[in-house]
Each structure stands twice: as C-alpha cells, then as structure tokens.
Amino acid sequence: MKNKRNIIIFANGELPTSNKANKELLSNKFILCCDGAVFKAESLSIEPDLIIGDLDSINNNIKKKYKDKIIKIEDQDSNDLYKALIWAEKNNVESVSIIGADGGSDDHYLGNLFIILENDFNFKIKLITNNGQFNLTNSEEFSSVENQRVSLFCLDKEAKITSYGLKYKLKNYQFNNLYGATLNIAKTKKFKIECDSPKTKILVYRSNEKTR
Amino acid sequence: MKNKRNIIIFANGELPTSNKANKELLSNKFILCCDGAVFKAESLSIEPDLIIGDLDSINNNIKKKYKDKIIKIEDQDSNDLYKALIWAEKNNVESVSIIGADGGSDDHYLGNLFIILENDFNFKIKLITNNGQFNLTNSEEFSSVENQRVSLFCLDKEAKITSYGLKYKLKNYQFNNLYGATLNIAKTKKFKIECDSPKTKILVYRSNEKTR
C-alpha cells in the first residue's frame, strides 16, 4: 500500500497572503485545484497535480496544457470544493489543507465552511485563511500563543466539550447554539479540546497571532 | 405609540466600502455602534445614536463624549452584535441593517452569521457586506439582476422551500445540509422564495451585481 498523501486543495477564492498559507504552499504537497483556481496557482508559479470541477472556469489552453491532470465532474448539486473532498475521500489521503476558500464571495465561503463542518471525512482537514486557521477535530491539543483568539463551532448539540488552557473554560459545554463558543482566548502556548462523543467533529479556529 | 425605528448596527469589522453599504449609511437611520465600532463610525464622520457592548474597546475620551449614549453590558457569553440585537428586540425596532460584520476575523464573521441564522427576532434583518447582502426571510420577493448569484441557508431540515425566477429551480426543497442551496442564479430582475413553514427563517444571499 502506498503512503497516504497529504494534499493542498486550492479553492477559487482570494490568493492567500498569510505566512501560514505560504508555508503550506511551499511544503511540496500534492496540489489539487478546484476548477478556475488553477489560474491562481499558476500566478504563484505553482503547477497543479490535479484539477477537479465542472470546468466552467477553465479555458481551452489550460485544458490542453493539463489534459492528463483534469477530472471533469458535472454535478451541479455540489460545489467544486465538495467534489475535491470526495476525491480525497476515495484516494487514500491522510490530510487536506484548504487554501483560498475565503474572500471575494460570502456565500461561497460560508458554503465551504458548512461542507467542512457538516461532513465526516476520513482524513485530517484544515482550512487556512488570511486571518487564521480552522481545524476539524474531535479531541486534540493545539499550539497557541498567549492571548491568541480561539473559537469553536459544532453542529452536535448533545456532545459535551471540555477545554484546558483557554481563558473562558468550557466544562462539559454543549453547543446550544452555533455561536456560543466563539471569541475565547488561549492562555499560553498550548490548549486542549476534549469531546465526550468520539464521532463528533468540532471546528477549532485560531486567529493569526498578529491579529491581536 | 411612537413610530417603529429602522436602525443600522455598526459591527466592529472592516469599514464598508460598497455602494449598498454607503447608501445605508447615508439613509439617516438610527445608528447603533457595537463597542469599538464607534471609532469606525467616527472615521466616516458619523455620530452614533447609541453604543452597546462590554466597552473593552472604548477609551475614556469616547466614554466621556458619548456618556448619555452608552449602554454597558458585561455578559461575556454573548458578543456585541447579539447584545445590540437584543436591545433592538426590546425597543420597538422595525428593521435592522448590519454593516461591518465581515472582514478581518473569520470567527467573528461566522459567529455573527450564526446569530442571525439561529435566532428569531421580531424585526426585519439584513446584513450588508462588501460583496453582497444577506436577508433573513420566510417568504419574499427580491429584486435582482440577470445572472446575479443567489444562495440560501437554513437550519430547518423539515421546511420545504420553493423558488420562482432562479436558474436551478427549488420545488419543495429541504435543506438536507447547510450548503445544499448555494450558488444559484437569478434569471431576471426579480425572484421569489416561498416556505411552507411560517416560522422558519431563511437567509437569502444576493451577490453584488458587479461580482459576476
């Protein structure tokens, strides 16, 4: 069995400019572009390993140039990021970093976040924006810096969450609403989230250190 | 009984630059600033009618200048936008336009959208970003332009939605997931959403005309 792949999905939002995003791009992972995002990759002199989408944003030159790297999926009922994640689910992927999912389009961004929040993929998943990073987890210790902002989002209203190392401590906290665990603060260089329900996924947001 | 008020809530995100947002600001409505958003209002030479928040982002000069217009609410379990909306709920407000809720902070923005999506306020509510506009509705006809992007979000998975005037027609559509009705397109200068469940609220996003 081949080693599992770590991939970057390049969604068709704004070009990432943060250090975290650039570090990801330079990390030599497999690059999967969502449809027209190939132009954004090319503008950074990054060549895609795979392009997935309905191809309505790609011209004939690109189609010819990457003819062996394109998977066309017409389905109008799912967006290109979802198609890319389904491909990852079927292709022995260990981790996915999503870049370019924010910016330029509120509904696209919100839709992309919901796709991550609501699905249960078999790989690690993070979404890097220019302002911070979302990680999907069940129970995990995260690195942080003092006073870094931390927000949690979860659709499961039954699961109980406990935190260690956050200013506003959560103890068997239940998400009565989707916005109830936002704007917390990391006390030092790490914090921990624990969930009593092993299948529940929590979206953990950490702001970039410099934004505070 | 006094006339009901139409208010603008100035959240503490990026300054609005779109025409729609500026039109709102010039419309002479009652201006409610969330905490530090007062600085953003002042930078546009707009004087707040009311400031609500825990006041952790306001200096003594501002506190003195607006001493008769400040309501301090300490509650750490709710954010400043939520506090402002609760004030509106109690104060005979007819409509709320929210400006500056996007930008600069992914978790703040997401939290603000969830506050709108998940609560049932007794007034009309819209959130204007630099890329488009969210309206919370049950059944309504909206103005649009040909090919304008339209996305719907709803937490109620039982309610059935029907659309008129959208490219991908919804007929008794149910929100099996939160991202399932995004990236639709208006066919002409108006479209209509109908929901069979009178209490269900649907967040309708229309992109700015120029973004397509």
Tags for this model:
homodimer; 212 residues; alpha/beta; Rossmann fold; 2 domains; 13 strands; globular
Provide a descriptive summary of the structure in words.
The structure is a homodimer of 212-residue chains. By secondary structure, chain A is of the alpha/beta class. The first copy, chain A, folds into 2 domains: 126 residues, 3-Layer(aba) Sandwich (Rossmann fold); 75 residues, Rossmann fold, CATH 3.40.50.10240. Chain A contains 5 helices and 13 strands. In chain A, the strands form 2 sheets. In chain A, strands 4-3-2-1-5-6-7-13-9-11 form a 10-stranded mixed beta sheet, sandwiched between helices. The longest helix of chain A has 13 residues. Chain A is globular and about 55 Å long. The interface between A and B is medium-sized, with 35 and 35 residues.
Task: Lay out the secondary structure.
Two copies of one chain form a homodimer.
Chain A: E1 5-10, H1 19-25, E2 30-34, H2 37-43, E3 50-53, H3 60-65, E4 70-72, H4 80-90, E5 93-99, H5 106-118, E6 124-128, E7 132-137, E8 140-143, E9 149-153, E10 161-164, E11 181-185, E12 190-195, E13 202-207
Parallel strand pairs in A: 1-2, 1-5, 2-3, 3-4, 5-6
Antiparallel strand pairs in A: 6-7, 7-13, 8-12, 9-11, 9-13, 10-12
Q: What's the count of strands of chain A?
A: 13
Average of per-residue pLDDT values of chain A: 89
Continuous helix count of chain A: 5
Percent helix of chain A: 10-25%
The CATH class of the largest domain in chain A turns out to be: Alpha Beta
Question: What is the string of helix and strand elements of chain A?
Answer: EHEHEHEHEHEEEEEEEE
**Portion in strands of chain A:** 25-35%
Oligomeric status of the shown chains? homodimer
* Rg of chain A, Å, rounded: 18 Å
Q: Name the shape of chain A in a single word.
A: globular
Strand arrangement, major sheet of chain A: 4-3-2-1-5-6-7-13-9-11
What is the fold-level CATH name, i.e. the topology of the largest domain in chain A? Rossmann fold
Largest interface: A-B, 35 and 35 residues
Could you give a short account of the major beta sheet of chain A? 10 strands, mixed
Low-confidence stretches of chain A: none
In CATH, the homologous superfamily of the largest domain in chain A goes by the name Thiamin pyrophosphokinase, catalytic domain
Second rung of CATH, namely the architecture of the largest domain in chain A: 3-Layer(aba) Sandwich
